[in-house]
Each structure stands twice: as structure tokens, then as C-alpha cells.
Amino acid sequence: MKSKIDKIPKKIPTLSKEENDILASYEAGEWKSIGLNNKLISSYQKAASATLAKNKRINIRLNQLDLQSIQKKAFEEGLPYQTFISSLIHKFVTGKLVEK
Q1: Residue 83 and residue 52: Cα distance in Å, rounded?
Q2: What is the pLDDT of residues 12-42, one digit of tens each?
Q3: Alpha helices per DSSP H over 1-100
Q4: Which of 69, 59, 98, 62 is nearest to 88 (CA)?
Q5: Could you give the CA distance from residue 90 to residue 86 in angstroms, rounded to a whole number?
Q6: For residue 37, what pLDDT is reported?
Q7: What one-character DSSP code corresponds to residue 8?
Q8: Mean local confidence (pLDDT), 55-78
């Protein structure tokens, strides 16, 4: 007997041409694993932990329009806006923030 979940049609997102090309390439078996080793995985885990460590809290006042623009850009990046702001600050202080 099927559950209600099985009866609900799943919405398949529309893919862009580039995404369809990537999917076709993957399905054709053109993608090969690079076989990450434990040392490389460990270095990625340490970098992620250091980046995500939040040990200080700050409060700042922003212009409402600036905050709305930041929230919009954060949404486009798929991030919570506070995480997005933190990322911008981190990129700035490490010299990795680049103007387009």
C-alpha cells in the first residue's frame, strides 16, 4: 500500500542549458572521482571548522535599504543574511574580497 507521500507528484526543477549539459555529461560517465585522501579531507574539515567558529557577538546598525540589499544577495547565494555578512567581513580582513 502506498503512503500519501508516494502519491504526491514531485516537482522537478527546470534546469538551465548549462545544468543540462553537466547532467548529460555525468550520466554519460564522463566524471571521475579524484579520490580524496584522508589528509586532504582532514585539512578541509579544519578549514571549515575555523571558518564556521563563531565566538564573538557584535551588534551593528545598518541603513534599512542596505540591510534589504544584503538580505536579497544572501538569499541569492543561499545563505542566511548574518552568515553572508560574516563571510563578507572574513573575506575583507583576509584580503580575499575582490571587486568585479
Answers
A1: 9
A2: 678 899 999 999 999 999 988 877 788 888 8
A3: 4-7, 17-27, 38-52, 64-77, 81-93
A4: 98
A5: 6
A6: 82
A7: S
A8: 93
As a whole number of angstroms, the distance between CA 38 and CA 83 comes to 28
Helix axes 81-93, 64-77, angle to 10 degrees: 90
Do 84 and 73 meet the contact criterion of CB atoms below 8 Å apart? yes
Kindly state the percentage of the chain with pLDDT values over 70: 87
Distance from C-alpha of 91 to C-alpha of 95, rounded to nearest angstrom: 6
In whole angstroms, how far apart are CA 22 and each of 1, 30, 31, 34, 78? 37, 10, 9, 17, 21
* pTM score, whole prediction: 0.48
Q: Which three cell numbers stand for residue 20?
A: 543540462
